[in-house]
Amino acid sequence: MGRFKNKIKVYIPDRIWQVMRIIFNPKKPKKKLRVEIHVADHCNLNCRGCDNFSCLAKPNYLDLNDYRKDLERLRELFGDDVEWITMMGGEPLLNKDITVYCSIAREIFPKALVRIITNGTLLLKQENAFWESLKKDRILLFVTKYPISFDYDAAKAYAEKMGVGFEYAFESGDVLKTMYMTPIDLEGRQNPKISYQLCGKGNKCITLKHGKMYTCETIPNFFTFNNFFGTDIKVTDDDCIDIYECDDPKKIMKKMASYAPACRYCDNIHYSSGIEWGLTEKKITEWVKK
Ligand code: SF4
Ligand code: SF4
């Protein structure tokens, strides 16, 4: 479907394509929850325009007790309607307890798909215990191939030898060449409804952080951007839903399928074409367009 859409898009000017997306493709609440959890804020790869701002983040790991408590609450709210739990970051393999997070997810959600999204570069440094634990807990490694000198296929072959599921982020195993980063409007002058509707992340990259659910991974990480550049992107309680205050899973899913006030900081109207992958120089202009 994605390829088909891309073919159509070649013949339709961007502006018309945007209007069509707003009118014909409104976001709807999902029936099953696919949730992302950042177990490490920082990353070892430092990509330009990282949407999680991980290349700007100080080393920081998710507290294991908070994590367990949040997953137990999700179980209470959604039961088996939690379809996917994704451990990511930053680079999740920087967290030395990564297998513990995976085992907790598997214990609480025996039927869910539990996976780690990783840049893969630390895989060949892992000890046997890592592989045995992932195999036991049926964890899938979901690996993005970056254009760097790392033998991804050797990592894949090793994972398979150790009985651990391994998938590339792109079906064809292609290398990521373009970063579709969020272009930031520091003044927050964008129409949040339109920006959300044009965004590929809202309602798709639902993120759980410290007992709150966000429609995307960008909002809960704006604090990293603010800390690094001294900016004042405002994130409030209206941008998320507290899973301890809300007892209604339908209400939570509805909130995920609605724009957040913080969407006004994303300029998806004027900049949607992505940037060539490269290492960051940590300049604000990588994210903020004039
Ligand atoms: S895009 Fe992924 S690999 Fe690159 S810096 Fe961000 S988290 Fe790390
Ligand atoms: S803040 Fe809104 S527009 Fe920006 S990435 Fe998240 S969902 Fe998309």
Automatic annotation (TrEMBL):
<protein>
    <submittedName>
        <fullName>4Fe-4S single cluster domain-containing protein</fullName>
    </submittedName>
</protein>
<dbReference type="GO" id="GO:0051536">
    <property type="term" value="F:iron-sulfur cluster binding"/>
</dbReference>
<keyword id="KW-0411">Iron-sulfur</keyword>
<dbReference type="InterPro" id="IPR013785">
    <property type="entry name" value="Aldolase_TIM"/>
</dbReference>
<keyword id="KW-0479">Metal-binding</keyword>
<dbReference type="InterPro" id="IPR007197">
    <property type="entry name" value="rSAM"/>
</dbReference>
<dbReference type="InterPro" id="IPR050377">
    <property type="entry name" value="Radical_SAM_PqqE_MftC-like"/>
</dbReference>
<keyword id="KW-0408">Iron</keyword>
<dbReference type="GO" id="GO:0003824">
    <property type="term" value="F:catalytic activity"/>
</dbReference>
<dbReference type="GO" id="GO:0046872">
    <property type="term" value="F:metal ion binding"/>
</dbReference>
<dbReference type="InterPro" id="IPR058240">
    <property type="entry name" value="rSAM_sf"/>
</dbReference>
<feature type="domain" description="Radical SAM core">
    <location>
        <begin position="40"/>
        <end position="128"/>
    </location>
</feature>
<dbReference type="Pfam" id="PF04055">
    <property type="entry name" value="Radical_SAM"/>
</dbReference>
<keyword id="KW-0949">S-adenosyl-L-methionine</keyword>
